[in-house]
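It is worth pausing here to work through a concrete case rather than discussing structure prediction in the abstract. The textbook approach is simple: state the sequence, then state the predicted structure, then interpret. We follow exactly that order.
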Amino acid sequence: MTTRTTPPDDAYDEEERLPCGRPVAEVWECRERRADDPHARTCVHCRRAAEDFERLESAVRGLRDETEHPAVDTASLTRRVMDVVRLELRPGRPLPLGTATENLWITEAVAARALRAAAETVPGVRAGSCRFRDDPEGTAVGVRIEVHAPADRHLPDTARRIRRAVYETADRELGMPVTLVDVVVADVVTPADAQEDTSR
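Step two, the predicted structure:
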């Protein structure tokens, strides 16, 4: 039997809000889904935020189009960049920390940042999106992390090293119970690609 309580009601209060009171991430999500939003039609703050979203997405597309590698999956690149931007804007839901008897929580954004950094301790690896899902008991989480891996390394070995680094960081640095770590290799990069990317 567990004694962990539900996450605090104010867990989402830290997200960035517009002067009208609406979260920026909520406005962006509505814009991206092209959802009907009566408030945004009359609110100058929401309209400006939506326009900022469009400009950011256009800038990402522009950088994407300037790449010298036409074989790159550009739609996937844009999606990953925007996922990270949205995650940084919204702290996300609380995730459990410690044992089931402790009422300790960490937001998704903070946990994802730490686990992406852990994955990138493996030489040549660049981390992308990091997602969480609850286990049936609600006392631990599963992790799914996307990475770009070096093409000159054995991929299964690289994935094992990433998984070990993520587990160790979750346990030793965060104290977050993790039941599994799925590593998705979204792309492979050559050493020359990696060096060029970091020099920009």
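Step three, interpretation. The chain has two domains: 24-88, 94-199. The helical segments are 24-33, 38-42, 44-65, 74-89, 108-119, 155-174, 191-199.
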